[in-house]
Amino acid sequence: MLFHVRMDVQLPHDLSVEAHADVLAREKAYSRQLQRSGKRPQLATHPSEI
């Protein structure tokens, strides 16, 4: 059974633009890796990807 879960994450406001972009890029790459490996094929980073 699958469940729909939404996570709202707020990065620190004092995080630099470069660090913010780096965190987002690494998390997106990690989720894509999990999707491609078959461990979490149902992961979506945006509702339009479901």
Strand and helix layout:
Elements: H1 17-37
How would you describe this protein?
Residues 31-50 are annotated as: Disordered. This is Muconolactone Delta-isomerase. One of its GO terms (molecular function) is muconolactone delta-isomerase activity. With 50 residues, the chain is mainly alpha-helical. The chain is 42% helix and 0% strand. It is built from one helix and no strands. The protein has one helix at residues 17-37. The radius of gyration is 13 Å and the shape is flat.
In short:
Its EC number is 5.3.3.4. This protein has 50 residues and is an all-alpha fold.
Distance between the termini: 16 Å
Approximate helicity band? 40-55%
**What's the helix-strand series?**
H
Mean pLDDT: 81
Percent range for β-strand residues: under 5%
- What structural category characterises the helix and strand content? mainly alpha
Question: What overall form do the CA principal axes indicate?
Answer: flat
Biggest sheet statistics: none
Radius of gyration: 13 Å
Helices, by number, come to 1
Q: Got a strand count?
A: 0
Low-confidence spans: none
List key phrases describing it:
single chain, 50 residues, mainly alpha
